[in-house]
Design brief:
Blueprint: H1 2-29, H2 31-37, H3 41-86, H4 98-125, H5 130-151, H6 157-166, H7 168-182, H8 191-207
Helix pairs in contact: 1-3, 3-4, 3-5, 3-8, 4-5, 5-6, 5-7, 5-8, 7-8
């Protein structure tokens, strides 16, 4: 599962680079731009290289929504593997409906994109605060999403949300610890699967605590 998740993440980022190159080539080949710059093939190559470098830099910001999309595909498999290894006493759990997971993930993906656009704008205004805002914002959002998706395998949605609210401080910390390595080149590629396992453990630990 780890290697499949890693491969899918790399494929998505490579696809993003190819889309940038395609968009640049289409723009340069348009009649309006061609009339302004003429036949400057070297300029097209320069724009392509710049687009790839820009996409690689932007991948730091893209990694969080990409990771969120990937987790939907692997959550049940990771959670099942963790439960079989560490919680064999739990009854066998049938996988949640993929359609419902995808809808939840799409809604959350939109929220993540908006949040990361905000942090990207902030990084241009206050660059010294940007990493901390990025980690804190995505840590909270990812912690909430990952935890509740893990919890909803065993609890109704309302109870999963209530459990999150009761322990959102520790979940936020865990989410932030997961968001930090997402900004590290290569290291962030391994985080989605590890995050699913982490929040499966955290859900089982927190629901075992005595209620107030």
């Amino acid at each position: 599962m780890l290697w499949r998740g890693l491969g899918l993440t790399i494929e998505l980022l490579v696809t993003a680079c190819l889309l940038v190159i395609f968009g640049v080539n289409q723009l340069l080949s348009s009649a309006l731009v061609a009339g302004l710059i003429g036949d400057q093939s070297w300029l097209g190559s320069l724009f392509n290289i710049g687009g790839i470098l820009f996409t690689i830099v932007l991948s730091v910001w893209l990694m969080v929504p990409v990771a969120s999309a990937i987790i939907t595909l692997f959550l049940d498999e990771v959670a099942q593997a963790v439960e079989e290894q560490y919680y064999p006493h739990l009854p066998k759990q049938t996988a949640a409906k993929l359609q419902g997971q995808i809808l939840v993930s799409i809604n959350f993906l939109g929220l993540l994109i908006l949040a990361n656009i905000g942090t990207l704008i902030l990084s241009l205004i206050l660059p010294f605060l940007a990493p901390f805002v990025f980690w804190a914002t995505n840590g909270y959002l990812m912690g909430q999403e990952y935890f509740q998706m893990a919890a909803m395998r065993r609890l109704p949605r309302a109870q999963a949300h209530a459990l999150f609210q009761n322990h959102q401080g520790s979940i936020w910390i865990a989410g932030t610890l997961m968001a930090i390595p997402l900004t590290m080149p290569l290291v962030g590629l391994f985080i989605p699967i590890l995050g699913a396992a982490t929040f499966t453990h955290q859900f089982e630990r927190l629901r075992a605590l005595p209620s107030d």
